[in-house]
Amino acid sequence: MKRRHILGLAFVVGLAVLAVGAASTASPGTAPPPQGWANLAPTFVEQVVDRPGFQLLEVSQGSVRTWVRVPDVGVRVGDYVLLGQGRMQPDVDIPELGTVARELVDIDHVQVADYDTAVRSVRSPAPADAVAIEAVYAELAARADREVVVYGTVVKAPDAIGYRWVHLQDGSGDPAAGTHDLTVKTQASVTVGQRVAFRGTLRRDVDLGFGYHYDALVEGGLKLAPVN
Predict the structure, then answer these.
(1) What are phi and psi of 178, to 5 degrees?
(2) CA-based radius of gyration for the chain
(3) 71 contact partners, CB below 8 Å, separation of at least 6
(4) Is 116 helix (H, G, I), strand (E, B) or coil?
C-alpha cells in the first residue's frame, strides 16, 4: 500500500501540550482531566486502529484532521469523542494503514460522546472579566448581590427542583476551607469535564433547607458561548 503523510494542523494546538521529553455521561471512557476537555470543536472519529491496550484515532474538526493515541475505551468510526490535552509525537508509523502520521497526540483522557454532548463540550476560553473562584470567596462581602462572571471545569452538575447545580473549579482556592468549588444555579446544559464560563448574580449565605447551605452561590447562571 502506498505510504502517505497525514497532517494535523489547527486544533492540534488545542490538544497538545509540548513537553521536554516526553457530564457526567454513561458513554465509555475515562474520567475527565482536572483541567477539562480540550476540544475546540465537535471531534468526529474518521478512522480507528486497535492495538493492545490503546487505540489510534484519526479525528476531524471540520476539514482539519489529525491522529491521536488514547486508552482503549471501545471508540468506533462514526463516534464523537471528548479529549484531554496530551503530548505531541512527530512522524509516527501506522503500518496497519501504510501511513505515517506526521503529528500524533498522546492523550490519557478520552470519552465517547453523542453529537449534542460534543457540541456543548467545546472548550470555552476564560472571559477577560472572569473572577477566580478563590477571589469570589475572598471578596464575597463586597461582591454579594452583584453580577459576576466565573469560569472553570464542571466537576459535577446534578439536577434538582428544576435547576442544574453546576460545581465549578478553576484550580484556585483551598479545598480544606471549601473555597475551591463554586456552585452555579442554572438551567443550561453542561457536561462534566467541560470548561465553561457563566454570568450570574452572586449570593452569599444561601440556605435552601434540607441541609443544603452555600456560602456563595451564583444564581441565574447564563452560560457564555465559546469565542474562538
Answers:
(1) 75, 20
(2) 20
(3) 30, 53, 54, 55, 108, 110
(4) helix
Q: What is the DSSP string of 117-176?
A: HHHHTSPPPPPTT---HHHHHHTHHHHTTSEEEEEEEEEE--EETTEEEEEEE-S-S-TT
CB 224 within 8 Å of CB 120: no
**Measuring CA to CA, which residue among 102, 37, 39, 49 is closest to residue 77?**
49
Q: Which residues contact 8 (CB under 8 A, 6 or more apart)?
A: 64, 65, 66, 67, 101, 102, 103, 104, 105
Amino acid found at 66:
T
Nearest to 216 by CA among 134, 160, 155: 134
Q: Whole-model pTM above 0.85?
A: no
pLDDT digits (tens, 9 = 90+) for 195-208: 999 999 999 999 98
Q: Write down the pLDDT at residue 8.
A: 43
pLDDT (tens digit, 9 = 90+) per residue, 103-124?
Answer: 999 999 999 999 999 998 888 8
CA distance linking residue 105 with residue 68, whole number of Å: 5
107: its cell numbers: 492523550
**pLDDT tens, residue by residue, 132-179:** 999 999 999 999 999 999 999 999 999 988 999 999 999 999 999 999
